[in-house]
Specification:
alpha/beta, 4-stranded mixed beta sheet, 3 helices
Length: about 180
């Protein structure tokens, strides 16, 4: 007679070895940890979260309290990565997590398309930062003009390039595609 993986008597007589029981308390902690991690602010744009910017890929909370967070960096070598990693771990611990592992993922690659529409609007309105469309077009965040000409591949930060709007004659910073 073949034995069931849960034992000869089935599930009602015990759990599988190594399994953990999920309790309402565990579910509450998992929800609190996810909420805390998704609320972590970007150090460069404090009005936006890492979720708004498409940096947060995953939050997995084990029944043992172990938290694994996957982040997609906008740029390798970004000086803010250590700050984001520390803030994510602190947020998870503050919400009741046990051990926290933060991993920067190589895949999927970050692209500006990961930025939420509301975040795009805020970047344009509050920071005068443009995001190149899928077709490569840049709309000036100051005047809405489409005659934006590239000036330098390197901007004030690793993740932005410099351009010039011929319509309103203002400099424009443009979010670069991730360089992995």
């Amino acid at each position: 007679m073949a034995r069931h993986s849960l034992g000869a008597h089935g599930a009602r007589h015990g759990r599988r070895p190594g399994s953990r029981r999920v309790t309402p308390s565990t579910r509450t902690t998992a929800a609190a940890v996810r909420a805390a991690v998704t609320a972590v602010r970007d150090p460069e744009y404090p009005d936006l979260t890492i979720e708004d910017l498409g940096i947060l890929e995953s939050v997995d909370v084990g029944t043992d309290g172990m938290v694994a967070v996957g982040l997609v960096p906008t740029m390798l070598g970004c000086p803010a990565l250590k700050v984001i990693e520390s803030d994510v771990a602190a947020a998870a611990h503050g919400a009741g997590a046990g051990e926290v592992e933060v991993t920067f993922l190589a895949r999927p690659a970050w692209t500006p398309e990961r930025i939420r529409p509301e975040a795009r609007s805020l970047l344009a309105r509050e920071y005068a930062i443009a995001i190149r469309g899928r077709d490569g077009a840049v709309i000036c965040p100051v005047c809405g003009g489409r005659d934006v000409q590239p000036r330098s591949e390197f901007g004030t930060t690793l993740c932005r390039s410099l351009a010039w709007c011929a319509s309103c004659r203002n400099p424009v910073e443009v979010v670069r595609r991730g360089v992995q």
